[in-house]
Design goal:
A 7-stranded parallel beta sheet has the order 3-2-1-4-5-6-7, with helices on both faces. The radius of gyration is 18 Å and the shape is globular. The chain is α/β, with parallel strands linked by helices. The longest helix has 22 residues. Helix 2 links the parallel strand 2 and strand 3. The protein has one domain: NAD(P)-binding Rossmann-like Domain (Rossmann fold). Helix 1 crosses helix 8. It contains 8 helices and 7 strands. The structure holds nicotinamide-adenine-dinucleotide and magnesium ion. Magnesium ion (MG) binds next to loops.
Length: about 300
Amino acid sequence: MRAPVSVRDMADLNEPQNVSTKYPGPPFETPKVPGPASISDMDPRPDHGEDSYVGHGRLEGRRALITGGDSGIGRAVAIAYAREGADVVLNYLPDEQQDAEDTARYVEQAGRRAHLVPGDLSDESFCTDLVSAAVDFLGGIDLLTFVGGRMPTIDGIEDFETSNWQNVVDVNLSSLFWITKAAKRHFGPGAVITVTSSEQAFQPSPSLVEYAVTKAGISNWARAMAAQLASEGIRVNAVAPGPFYTPLQPASDPKQKLENFGGSGPYGRPGQPAELASTYVYLASQEASYTSGETIAVTGAIPIH
Ligand code: NAD
Ligand code: MG
């Protein structure tokens, strides 16, 4: 078997180019992985902007707590925030320690500070402790960025399990309430909350009902919380990714969907995490000061609203 290469090796990243061929499309060779998957399970490896993201000081001195910050979209956001001038605290599951340490190294190479706080977002007391650990390290929180989430595939209502449903709701949705409640008194002026919704919030797949409902809830949460917090100068927005090439897929999808991942959309390929980071940076920056309660879709021309 050949060694996995990075999609970075296949793309000429900084030249204007045909967006549908900028990165590879299916078939992909990544095998299915039980439980949380790692970047090292993927073939080819995703592009999180390690060699391409260029910062412009847009988040200078900001203090960011990022969930799901070890891999995929969260890693791309962590690298971009750091190169824009932010220090970061990263949350992830303990099994993903290696991915998290690699992400922290990229943050430190950007001249910023990183602190790792593994733990389970389905646990309310852990969520409260996570905020305390972030405040201890950062001295406050300016950017609260929720990227962590679970996506179980459940084919039929016969297989619905209350315990699984409760866990998906807690990881994807309840953690927003728990962490925001604990973090609010530590927010600095102009604090920004960004949550990660999905195309599934608007175009749900039959086998992703539980997940899709939480993602619809996340977009709704952003809209409601934006209004609740506006008078205190806090903005709240959501990003709704289409198909992105991350460890979420080998951890969640059936083998056939994995092989053809992202192939059915107009681009004929999935997005790479590097193609999403600038949306989070935009929302976090003061350039977006009049943008709140919005869900920005980044889907490679798949219409979702
Ligand atoms: P990913 O696997 O790299 O990231 C998901 C992260 O969630 C994991 O790394 C893990 O750290 C974290 N996580 C999962 N369960 C957790 C728990 N119980 N406690 C703490 N952390 C937990 O995959 P990704 O695609 O970068 O996913 C990031 C977000 O993007 C997710 O919310 C996902 O729903 C959303 N999203 C992804 C896609 C896609 O196609 N990849 C599309 C739409 C939305
Ligand atoms: Mg991970």
